[in-house]
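Problem statement: downstream parser choked on a complex file, so we are re-checking the raw output for the iron/sulfur cluster run. The parser issue turned out to be on our end (a line-ending mismatch), but while we're here, posting the original submission so the record is complete.
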Amino acid sequence: MNVYDSERMAEALSRDGYRETTDIAQADLVILNTCHIREKAAEKVYSDLGRIRDVKDARKRDGKETVIAVAGCVAQAEGREITTRQPAVNLVIGPQSYHRLPELIARTETTKERIVETEFPGDEKFERMKTPRRVSSPSAFLTVQEGCDKFCTFCVVPYTRGAEFSRPLAKLEAEARELTAAGARELVLLGQNVNAYHGEGPGGRSVGLAELIRSLANIDGVERIRYMTSHPRDMDDDLIAAHADVPQLMPFLHLPVQSGSDRMLAAMNRKHTAAEYIDLIARVRAARPDIALSSDFIVGFPGETDQDAEDTLALVRAVGFAQAFSFKYSPRPGTPASSLEDQVPEDVKSERLQRLQALLDEQQSDFNSRCLGDVVPVLFERRGRQPGEFVGRTPYLQLVHAAADGDLVGRMANVAVTDVRRLSLSGVVQSGVIAAA
Ligand code: SAH
Ligand code: SF4
């Protein structure tokens, strides 16, 4: 979502004549878009800001001003503390205020005052940030929902992104048309809790994610649709059915479970059991047998015992994931879990994370190995590091490297998979570029 937000900020600022540069020494304005989900990400902000301040000082010696803005969830959570800890920062702006970015930047330039803007003005952001969409890749992000009302006890999202809000169907259809007109072939529907989507539809009636997906699939040029991130509790029958009958909906599901222990799931306030998750996966697989499954895991949540950690490994074995993200529990200020007794020692977290990741890595390798020799449709997104090499994705979201004489970026081609590693596949492009997945 930060990538999407950064793109939107760049689009909004381009109206004021700003252009992106990859050379920070050339930048009159630096926006650091930040993440607050774990402590490591949040702390990195201050070391990055130190480096940006050095650039600002060096430019100042050459007589050039630099505006530094901090955006994203660290901005939302820490507000004025950021300008206190790093006085070189001119503007702190939370995710719900991005529509005010051009105006606030202009104000810091003219008044030289430090501005902290972390209000939650609700839904006006998307309306007011309406600028023609550009696409840098055939796979385009589309934010359909923001915020979260679930309040898992470890998570800062409900505090930094605010209450759940879904964008109206008609607005999303319009943005999707703009994206396809600009060259997108795949839409990745984004939300902190995307399958809780309940936007306003025709006649003011509420539309769920499955109906949104069906509507977007009807738009000419939408060849692939994905969505993330989902919550198991919001995976309804209609969405499961969409995996069976919407050809554009890719056979991939990122459905975080966090833990395989019912005790931990309850303490996390996830509102489901391990057995319910496994049953849900069975229903999804019945609808789409080849679906690739992905998840997030947290190890070392307060009070987690060896048995709880074993229960997580057992769930992983029972499900079989194509890929996954796993993290050590990181106490976040203001969340209920951060003040629980029984915090798990760091070395125990590390050991549990290693065991979990070894199992997940093995499953990812197995999943990829099963593709060896297959011919898969790949949407090529960018050039690779080697000359003549292109990088794309299979329907199952695996990265694929393949060589070609022409330019494959933005094209769909069948690729015969000839080599398999844990994190990517390599293959040979079959003759004839194909039109659809
Ligand atoms: N809405 C999604 C997750 C969004 S946050 C869901 O409900 O699953 C992305 C991931 O970061 C989470 O799934 C979780 O695994 C991880 N995460 C969130 N807070 C964390 C914390 N305090 N410590 C460690 N990992 C955390
Ligand atoms: Fe955080 Fe996801 Fe839980 Fe919401 S559902 S509180 S975003 S982990």
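For whoever reads this later: The pocket of S-adenosyl-L-homocysteine (ligand 1) is lined by residues 37-38, 154-155, 157, 192-193, 229, 231, 256, 258, 296, 298, 327, 329-330, 332 (CB under 6 Å).
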